[in-house]
Amino acid sequence: MFSVPDRDPFEWLTIPEILTDLQVLLSDWQEWEAAGETPAGVIWPDGQVRISVLSYARWLDSLAISEDDAPPSPDQIRITILDALKIAADRGLSHTELCDMFAHYGVKVSPDTVTTALNDLTRVGACHPHTIDHAGRPVVRYRFGGAR
What we know:
By secondary structure, this protein is of the alpha+beta class. 45% of the residues lie in helices and 18% in strands. It has helices at residues 15-22, 26-34, 53-63, 74-88, 95-104, 111-123; strands spanning 12-14, 42-43, 49-52, 93-94, 127-134, 137-144. A 3-stranded antiparallel β-sheet has the order 1-3-2. Strands 4-6-5 form a 3-stranded antiparallel β-sheet. The longest helix has 15 residues, at 74-88. The radius of gyration is 24 Å and the shape is elongated. The mean pLDDT is 84.
């Protein structure tokens, strides 16, 4: 692979140059392109699509697997729940709302994991469950129990 940092960020690369750099087939690139998973390119007067080195480097960085892709630890889950409960204040949050919050941000946390975290936080007094009547059915909402 050529070293992107050693290249002028305003230099333009052809698709064949990128395919060679990535060591992939054109058919792979075309599948990625059809799925909208390639960096944006510009069609030059000669009809070739070219991609700036800067755009290519950013795209490569976006593909890098990092520790952020690892599932959150139980401590991270508990801290996130506590932060959300602090923000929700007296309104509190239900189990479902907490699960939806993680899903909204693309964090894969099972409902059982949320239950375990809420039980741990309740046991140490960091949050408190309150049952409310919502449209004729009981709903448990959790409120922050520590110092704000």
